[in-house]
Design brief:
It is built from 2 helices and 2 strands, in the order αββα. It has a two-stranded antiparallel ribbon with strand order 1-2. A hairpin with a 2-residue loop joins strand 1 and strand 2.
Length: 103
């Protein structure tokens, strides 16, 4: 997590906490056949937490694809570096053989 994301997260957390504290009345939450009464602070914080969890789960497939791609690219880079090293070794050998044949 870079520094700007952390700062943005902290600002958002302060805004949500301030909003929750200023709206601390009672709330009735209804969902299908389920109903409960709670403080609005609790409802806001639970809703925010559920939203964050959903965002994390929605972001997981993209992160997984990026990690796989990075792993593949790292392997490709290692292969190319090995091939380059082999060519450099071969070139050095050819140059030394050429110099030996000139003498």
């Amino acid at each position: 997590m870079n520094q700007f994301s952390l700062i943005g997260f902290l600002i958002l957390a302060v805004v949500i906490a301030t909003f929750s504290v200023q709206n601390s009345g009672e709330a009735i939450v209804k969902f299908v056949w389920w109903q409960f009464q709670s403080s609005l602070v609790v409802v806001i914080l639970i809703s925010t937490a559920l939203g964050a969890i959903m965002a994390i789960f929605l972001n997981l497939p993209g992160n997984f694809r990026l990690r796989m791609r990075l792993r593949e690219q790292a392997q490709r880079i290692a292969e190319l570096e090995q091939r380059l090293q082999e060519r450099e070794t071969r070139r050095t050998k050819d140059v030394s053989e050429f110099r030996q044949s000139e003498k």
